[in-house]
């Protein structure tokens, strides 16, 4: 894989009808911010070949909001991505990313934020940027990394809803 996009699901409703966290849907703000972020990423040419999506309702709703920006992207729901830790996310990216140009993972914190910080550190990102990611990785945020031939990450963008860096 040449590029990895880590995308946190959009803002979700506080509760679901079932009372189960897994079933929480996106709030209207989450739908809007996810669609806007997808359009922004697509406008930069960051179009995934494959999107791995957690099975939770809010991540599936996030993908539905993103899909308009990425109509040709293959999507797979991966059961093990629900609240996955950074190691699980990284292993999933490594396996699914083989032979792909760009891979996106749509998932949850804290795993996505932890993996973002690890990749920023490994890629030698400025301390201020690492600190920014440590302080906040909001809903509908995306972290983008170029992956070199040796598998090393290099910072390619950190995007927060309404603010792009």
Helix content: 25-40%
Low-confidence stretches: none
Number of domains: 1
- The radius of gyration over CA amounts to 14 Å
The largest pleated sheet is described as: 7 strands, mixed
Overall 3D shape: globular
CATH superfamily: Phosphoglycerate mutase-like
Which CATH architecture would you pick? 3-Layer(aba) Sandwich
Number of helices: 5
N-end to C-end Cα span: 23 Å
Mean pLDDT: 96
The topology string of helices and strands comes to EHEHEHEHHEEE
Strand order of the largest sheet: 3-2-4-1-5-6-7
CATH class (first level) name: Alpha Beta
What would the CATH topology be? Answer: Rossmann fold
Describe the structure.
The model has no long low-confidence stretch (mean pLDDT 96). It contains 5 helices and 7 strands; from the N terminus they run E-H-E-H-E-H-E-H-H-E-E-E. The two termini are 23 Å apart. Helix 1 packs across helix 2 (57-66) and helix 4 packs antiparallel against helix 5 (127-135). A hairpin with a 2-residue loop joins strand 6 (153-160) and strand 7. Strands 3-2-4-1-5-6-7 form a 7-stranded mixed sheet, sandwiched between helices. It has a single domain, classed as 3-Layer(aba) Sandwich (Rossmann fold), CATH 3.40.50.1240. With 165 residues, the chain is α/β, with parallel strands linked by helices. 35% of the residues lie in helices and 22% in strands.
